[in-house]
Amino acid sequence: MCAGRTQYVVTAGALLLSASVLTACAGHPPSTLEPDGPKASEVATSWWLLFAVAAAVCVIVIALAIIPLVIRRRARADPDNQGLRFVGIFGVAIPAVILGGVFALGLRDLSNASSPPSPTQVTIDVVAHQWWWEFRYSGPGTGTGSEVVTANEVHVPVGVPVELRLSTADVIHSFWLPQLTPKTDLIPKKVNTTWLTVSKPGVYRGECAEYCGVEHAYMDFELVAQSTTDFRAWVAKQGQPAAQPTSALARQGMSLVTTTTCASCHTVRGTAADGTVGPDLTHVGSRPRIGGQIISNTPDHLASWIDNPQNIKPGVKMPPQPLSQSETQAVVAYLEGLK
Amino acid sequence: MAGTVIPERRGAEAAVGATLDELWEEEPGLLGFLTTVNHKRIGRRYLVTAALFFLFAGVSALVMRTQLAVPDNHLVSPEEYDQLFTLHGTAMIFFFATPMNSGFGNYVLPLMIGTRDMAFPRVNALSYWIFLFSGLFMFSSLPLGMAPDGGWFAYVPLTREYLPGLNLDFYTLGLLMLAVSTTIGSINFIVTALKMRAPGMSLNRVPLFVWAIVTQSFMLVFALPPLDAANLMLFMDRRFGTHFFDTSHGGDAVLWQHLFWLFGHPDVYIIVLPAMGIISSVIPVFSRRPIVAYPLVVLATVATGIISFGVWVHHMFAVGLSTVSLAFFSAATLTISLPAGIQMFAWLGTMWFGRIRITTAMLYAVSFIVAFVLGGVTGVMFAVVPFDQQVTDSYFVVAHFHYVLFGGAVLPLLAGLFYWWPKMTGRMTSPRGGLISFILVFGGFNLTFFPMHISGLLGMPRRIYSYDGDLGWNIWNLLSTIGAFVLALGFLLTLFVFVQSLLHGPRSPDNPWGSNTLEWATGSPPKEYNFPVLPTVHSLNPLWDGKSLASMEEHDEDDLRVLTDEHQTLRTSEFDARIERVMTMPEEIIQPILVALSLLITVVFLLLKIYVGAYVGAGLLALVVLWWTWNRPEVES
Predict the structure, then answer these.
(1) What is the ipTM of this complex?
(2) A207 with A282, same domain?
(3) What residues make up the domain containing A179?
């Protein structure tokens, strides 16, 4: 009996555990309702308020619509001003009060969102491309004199307001970090600015929210929020020129990258490769994912990407590379060494 | 409710029916099919054609939902997916919702105001043929693999120089062509409603459906020019190298958005207002009492039409405009919910003070109220600018506008279809079939679109052809997809109910629902000439006042309302509907379809860049128009 009961408990526990594992497998969404910064937090708070009012309105209206269907009664030959009064109260007066409240809430949120509570200390230029993000660090606050350029990966210090200057190299995109800041569009020949503060260290998913062409679905980036010390260390490292290849294979890869078509689109700082069409590869080996976050950055993935990116991200601007298998391996060895 | 045939009609028909039959009969056979100008035939065609386009656009959506059922799916390629969602939106908005309303307007409006045809019957035929050809033109792009792929609002510069190919040319040319049809159709509705109402139908006795159609038509006349201008400029930019939207030569990318939404926001109400007009027709009948607060509802309808031109920027809150304009358009967005609230509570009040009779039409009307309030409350949320910026372009906004457009237009259109079906076909539909299909449609609709609120809040952007499985979106997408198939099943069943009714449905009496408006004083289906004697209207609810119907028996003494000499109807004054004079109405001709065909030829050659052919097409068009005006009917002075 007792053993049997234990068995039940264990089974139930295992079921619960597997259920929670399944839930974990289902993943963690970049939810607007789990904000980690003041901007998104304020929106989330307003949402819950709006949701409560909306739910109340819906319940009342739906009840008013359903009750006459259920409760049959004799039609009343009422004087019509009874109906007028009904519409005047429920359709005009009460909505006007609610809408006034919503307007006040909107003005408050708008004013709070339009500028940060304290001056920004770090400025990052964000340039959107079909279908990847370029981030450029400059000026004070980064602790570096040299220019730092990354792709699809942006680091910011925790607890500090960060200014983002948004522009686009081609079509209209929209910059969205659901847990941190609402959307701002990137418009040709225009620089929009927005700001964000991240309240705790972590990695956050960023997305393009405006349809921008065939690979709009895979134009994601990640934002890494870290302590100011870690952030400075990261910037300093990214500011370094590219690492020198250490093996013969990597050296062959370097000469391929700098002398073939790679160099016409990509920059590897400190080498002859200085193209500006595609992502800066100076520290590509340190990035967790590639291709606008579509695949993780492993040597195999990188090799198949270089061989034919169209198989992985159809429509991407990078053409298939006419390299032999051994040449591809050499290029991969070089790039993975660019930590 | 009277017996099978309204006695007043029987009397009038016995006296003058035979003469009128002869006068109003149209050419039979194929020639008659191509030349007809009868508003009921044209109205039916609008309904059938728009329903067909709804089917195409709906199947596109089913393919998209199947693609998104599970993460990392590869059912369709990214390019195909982009074409599907662009065509789905474009077709549902332009080639389904608006023409479907035109179909009801065409069929019902002349009957409802007590006249014998539209003001310009030949122009009416023209607007149908152009609609049909522009729709076929637009949809032909999909099997050719060249469907528009820039999203239904086609933002530049993506659509200007980043999407080569004919795809976007199908879009600009197709919409420009359709705009011709919509514009002349709107003018026709306005003139018909203002000049052809039955004697006595002064403005305070005009049914709400007619108010809605007239408001919508005025809106179309003012909203289409910005869209046409934008499409023309985009076509010229793409084809002839002009720089309207070219930022590197001083053009402006945001200009497109202003022009598009200056049309696009009024368009929401262009679609929803006539649908609300249907609701205002259905609810009083099945509540067995006149609508509550009629003057307020009229004011609300017209106010919606006007205010809707001042809210377009709420589609552009993330563009980076000044805080002042954001605040202004936030206020305007909130203001427009007031007239919507008035209409909503007028319907609720009518039901509250009435005695309900549940029919399929009434079920759809009530379900509209439920869906529209859900779409309405999320719409109000969008007035809070930072919240708008958070959820715009996510699945939350997809959920919102489907509650507004499916809930606010498709459900009322179904209500209207079930309500007017007996009038149009002379057959009743099965109540049980109606109930089951209603449950499937309404359930499927909610299961499809409600989860999208959640996936949007969880950070899922719209218009993505696939997504990773580790983002927590899987279950919501799967639910939406299941809902889409339930919805499709509901529509299949609805179709079955209508076919079954056509084949085996019981015959419908003249006024099966005990309705209040004039269309129910005619036969089911109505005769070619609609009314043997044009009635005199004594109230807002002529079939309930006991006097208006009786006016149809006065066929002996009052010849001015009988009009048996020629193919004629009455012209009345705009405000009080006093008789002004007798009008001879034009009969069927072949030119409208020829004009539409030459327009199609012109557009196809423009698409194919064969400009000589386009000149020939335009020349042909001019010649046919000349021929048409040459044969003007004799106008009585």
Answers:
(1) 0.93
(2) no
(3) 122-238
